[in-house]
Amino acid sequence: VYKRQGLLEADARALNPSFLQRMETGKPFVQLKMAASLDGKTALENGVSQWITSKEARQDVQRYRAQAGAILSTSKTVVEDNASLNVRWEELPISIQKSYQKDTVRQPLRIILDRQHQLTPDLKLFMTEGEVVTASSQYTHSITPQDNHLHCNVTEDGQLNLSEIIDKVAKDHNVNHIWVEAGATLAASMIKADLVDELIIYLAPKLMGADGRSLLNLVGLKAMPEAIELDITDVRMVGKDIRITAKIVR
Questions:
Q1: Which end of the chain is less enclosed by CB atoms within 10 A, N or C?
Q2: Please, are residues 120 and 76 in contact by the beta-carbon 8 Å criterion?
C-alpha cells in the first residue's frame, strides 16, 4: 500500500504552532512584541513614548493578546504605564469583534516579573479581569497569594531565571503560547537566553533621534558571527506602520 507522509505538514503546523511545539518539546511558543520608530527608538530621551505606533497597530496587538495563553511583562512596564495587559474587546479590530462577542472574551494569564517588588494593589493590573502571577527571587513582600507567586532562582548577574519561569508557567498553568511585552532589557535577555521563537516588530513612520531609547539592549557583540540572525517570514502594513514577523535562526 502506498503511504503518504508529511502531506501539507507545513500548512498544518502553521495553524497551531504553539500546541504542536509544546507537545513535541515541552516548551511553550514564545512571541516577543516590540514597537519602534523607523530609526529603532522606543521612546524619546526623556522617556515619552505614547504613541509611537498607530491605532491600527495597537488593535493588532490586542488580537495577538487574545490568541495567547499568557502575557509576560515586567513590573517596570506595569508601573510606568499603569498597564493592565489584558484583552480589551472594544480595541480589537472590527473584523474580530463581529465574530468574537464581548462576553466571550478569555483573558490570558498575566505573568509579571517583580524582582524588586514594585507592584502595588492600586494598579490597573489588579483591577481588571484576569489572573495575575508574580515572579521574584523570594516569597516575601509579594502582593499576590502564594499560589499565584513564582519563587525562582537568579542567574549569576542577579537577574531572574527566565527559562525557569517559562517552564513553570507552562507546566503549572498549562500554557502553550506566551506573548511578551517588555522593554529593551527584558527583550534582550529573552533573546540571549534563547527563549524567543518569533518576533513581532511594529515600525512607525517616525524618526526620533540618536538620543532616543533603543529597541533592544543587546551589548557585548564583537564580531558579525555573534549577531542574532533572523528569518523574516512576513512583512505587511498595519495602518501606517510596518509589521515584521521574524523567527530566530537557530
A1: N
A2: no
* DSSP string for residues in 115-160: TT----TTSGGGTSSS-EEEEESSSTT-SS-GGGEEE--B-TTS-B
Say if residues 73 and 181 touch (Cβ distance below 8 Å): yes
Spatial distance between the Cα atoms of 60 and 245, rounded to a whole number of angstroms:
13
DSSP class of residue 6?
S
DSSP code at position 232: E
CA distance 74 to 79: 9
**By three-state DSSP, how is residue 180 classified?**
strand
pLDDT in tens, 31-65: 999 999 999 999 888 877 778 899 999 999 999 99
Enumerate residues 6+ apart whose C-beta is below 8 A from 35: 42, 52, 53, 57, 201, 202, 203, 204
Nearest Cα neighbor of 185 from 157, 219, 210, 208 is 219
pTM above 0.70? yes
CA distances from 250 to 30, 38, 179, 235 (A): 14, 26, 20, 21
Residue among 203, 234, 201, 217 at smallest CA distance from 31:
201
Q: Among 66, 63, 85, 64, which residue's Cα sits nearest to residue 74?
A: 85
The candidate with the shortest Cα–Cα distance to 203, out of 247, 235, 231, 249, is 235
Q: Which three cell numbers stand for residue 155?
A: 542567574
Tell me how far apart the alpha carbons of residues 114 and 118 are, in angstroms, rounded to a whole number.
6
Strand partners for 132: 110
Average pLDDT, integer, range 182-204: 94
